[in-house]
Design goal:
- This protein has about 675 residues and is of the alpha+beta class.
- It folds into 3 domains: about 400 residues, Beta-lactamase, CATH 3.40.710; about 110 residues, Beta Barrel (Lipocalin), CATH 2.40.128; about 140 residues, no CATH class.
- It is about 35% helix and about 15% strand.
- The chain has an 8-stranded antiparallel β-sheet, covered by helices on one side. It has a 7-stranded antiparallel β-sheet with strand order 3-2-1-16-15-14-13, sandwiched between helices. The protein has a 3-stranded antiparallel β-sheet with strand order 4-10-6.
- Helix 3 packs across helix 6.
- The N terminus is likely disordered.
Length: about 675
């Protein structure tokens, strides 16, 4: 599901949450937050130079393709520490090649079989939900531009007086903030019915409708619930009857738990092949956004149907006009960057039009690419996260190298801007940004504080986004090729900015532009993390100095030099510093742990989340008051100038932490996130 990519924040991007480093199809489409890990040494990387070009390019036929894949995947999986993968390529309405590599079960040494082994494609599941929506649009039962509330039994609030629509939902522009509570778990008992999960909390709509791409698992699940209500069938039944059965997808299911006859063929999931430890089956609370399990052979049928205008043999799941509408109706992002279609995101490469979707659970990592004008589709899914998030670079390298080999074209940068203008524009875009795909009204907004996205200017006049790294692990460099449009110096990927009154307000870069952009932040938010880090350091030093000074006095038999109100203030402010440090440190630690272990986002953690927030709600304001009172006492006393300066720093530190507690929703009550 792209469990959360890119992205709750730049921190998640850098942390590698969707295990997708610059995928040809934006890996943030998982249910996990997307990231940008580097390509492990030895894994095949992106190739541009040296690939056959023009008339000399190899012909896409089975023998050449199999030889190429056999040279790519075994080495990539071994180097990336990945147990197994399934790869499917279709062309002109037929399966050209489907093949398994590695193992579906390491303990049993079961090889991956594309006909029999089921993988979890994560957010690629969304394409089935979007297809179901478009079926009902085609039947006149749904209107893409109507208020979705007319199809629901609860209310999605308007934003700026505008309702949410299915068109916005399919293009991820309904404006929802990120939601991850109960997103994924290994405990079947923690999965709530779809309607119940959606009604628990409707995420705030933090962007103006139809203006800002912000990838949303919640919105996709909402669309699945609408399919359920309008069709009168449970979502699982609808998908089986109207998509799986017509296409002959007999080894695919959204059901949780997986039916017994399919569970036997389900691949195990792994953190890494080398540890050999199979993981528990993953349950997805927002099932329409990512609970699919399917074989490679079944995914081939789905790709062929979309490439053939909605038809597979004598079966038809979409009318040709509806399929074209789904594939070609684009929602602009920033400038001329790749767009979000109705459910697919555009990932055109080498001048060939392409639409795609990627997906990640914790253990499975997948990408699907369609080249409608060329009649070609490719699908890959891996059953391990691998070493250092290797699946992202492998997927990117596979898709890009496939296109460079079999669908070549001119990728060289064209145009340019005068050097003086380029340096001015680089300075204008430099700064601090938050991802549009973020939590904003809840505790998880702390991820924005922990890792905003930065744009920096390089000495050679190029710009870099340090969190966006190339296959060599180094930050990409982008050179301006036309006003406020930059191109990666090693690929055809572009970065573009929106400019208002000479000020860059937001930017996007490919391949992520269709599902999220980055919005400039200013004021305290732009320096929030350094300020909070410095404040916590001051609090920590204050707390540590308390026992240290006591031991020093005891060792040298020096009496405690304060008395009366001064002594009381001295003791109270140190207790306050300890409590404030515990409150904010505990909140940050909890958020980091939740992002690292999704099991902690289950409803079973609600009590802990509420307790941490309540503790902070009491402690942070009281700590600030005590620190201000202490500073007042110290400044009025005859104590040394160092003590007076430290009391002011301590008061300032407590105020900064209080600001962060309010601004990032540490202070408050509840477990909605």
């Amino acid at each position: 599901m792209r469990l959360i990519p890119l992205i709750l924040s730049g921190w998640l991007l850098a942390a590698g949450w969707t295990q997708a480093a610059q995928p040809a199809s934006p890996s943030p489409v998982s249910i996990l937050p997307a990231g940008a890990p580097s390509l492990p040494e030895g894994v095949p990387g992106e190739v541009v130079d040296g690939q056959p070009q023009g008339d000399g390019a190899p012909v896409l036929e089975r023998a050449d393709l199999e030889a190429w894949l056999d040279g790519f995947f075994p080495h990539a999986l071994a180097t990336g520490d990945i147990a197994g993968a399934v790869v499917v390529v279709v062309k002109d309405g037929q399966v050209l090649l489907q093949k398994g590599y590695g193992h579906a079960d390491l303990a049993a040494r079961t090889p991956v079989d594309p006909e029999a082994t089921l993988f979890r494609p994560g957010s690629v599941s969304k394409l089935f939900t979007w297809t179901a929506v478009m079926q009902l649009v085609e039947q006149g039962k749904l209107d893409l531009d109507a208020d979705v509330n007319q199809y629901l039994d609860f209310s999605v609030p308007a934003r700026d007086g505008q309702p949410a629509t299915l068109r916005q939902i399919l293009t991820h522009t309904a404006g929802f903030e990120e939601q991850i509570r109960g997103l994924i778990t290994a405990d079947e008992a923690q999965i709530a019915p779809l309607g119940e999960a959606l009604k628990h909390w409707v995420p705030e709509r933090i962007h103006a409708p139809g203006t800002t791409p912000a990838y949303s698992n919640y919105a996709t699940a909402l669309a699945g619930y609408i399919v359920e209500r309008v069709s009168g069938q449970p979502f699982d039944d609808y998908i089986e009857q109207h998509i799986f059965q017509p296409l002959g997808m007999t080894r695919s299911s959204f059901r949780q738990p997986l039916p017994a006859q399919l569970l036997a063929g389900m691949s195990k999931g792994y953190g890494a092949a080398s540890d050999g430890q199979a993981k528990d089956y993953e349950f997805i609370s927002l099932a329409p956004a990512g609970s699919l399990a399917a074989t490679g052979a079944d995914m081939a049928r789905f790709m062929i149907a979309h490439l053939q205008g909605g038809a597979y043999g004598d079966a038809r799941i979409l009318g040709q006009d509806t399929a074209r509408q789904m594939h070609r109706t684009g929602q602009a992002s920033v400038g001329a960057l790749t767009r979000m279609m109705l459910g697919f995101y555009e990932t055109s490469v080498n001048g060939h039009f392409a639409i795609s979707h990627g997906g990640d659970t914790q253990w499975f990592h997948s990408d699907l690419h369609l080249f409608p004008d060329d009649g070609i589709g490719i699908y890959v899914s891996m059953n391990s996260s691998g070493r250092e998030g290797a699946t992202g670079p492998i997927r990117y390298a596979f898709a890009r190298n496939f296109a460079d080999r079999y669908l070549p074209g001119d990728t060289s940068a064209t145009g340019g801007v005068p050097e003086e203008d380029a340096r001015l524009h680089a300075q204008q875009i430099a700064g601090t940004y938050f991802s549009s795909r973020r939590a904003q009204s809840n505790l998880l907004s702390l991820t924005n504080l922990l890792g905003p996205v930065k744009v920096v200017v390089n000495e050679d006049g190029t710009i870099s986004v340090p969190a966006a790294r190339g296959s060599n692990g180094a930050p990409k460099k982008w050179r301006e090729v036309e006003p406020y449009v930059w191109q990666d110096t090693t690929s055809a990927d572009r970065l573009a900015a929106d400019v208002v009154d000479g000020r860059v307000t937001r930017f996007g870069f490919e391949p992520y532009a269709s599902i999220m952009v980055f919005e400039r932040v200013s004021g305290l938010h732009a320096v929030g993390m350094p300020l909070v880090a410095a404040s916590l350091a001051i609090l920590l030093l204050t707390v540590l100095a308390w026992p240290v000074s006591a031991m020093v006095r005891r060792y040298y038999r020096v009496p405690y030099g304060l008395s009366g109100r001064d002594a009381r203030a001295h003791r109270l402010v140190r207790i306050a510093a300890l409590l404030v440090l515990l409150a904010m440190g505990g909140a940050i630690g909890l958020v980091v742990a939740m992002m690292s272990q999704l099991e902690l986002t289950s409803p079973g953690s609600d009590g802990l989340v509420i307790a941490v927030r309540l503790f902070a709600t009491v402690v942070l304001p009281l700590g600030a008051l005590v620190s201000i009172w202490n500073a007042w006492q110290v400044l009025r006393s005859r104590r040394r100038i160092g003590a007076k300066l430290w009391s002011l720093l301590l008061a300032l530190a407590c105020l900064v932490v209080l600001w962060a507690g309010v601004a990032y929703h540490v202070i408050g009550f509840g477990a909605r996130y």
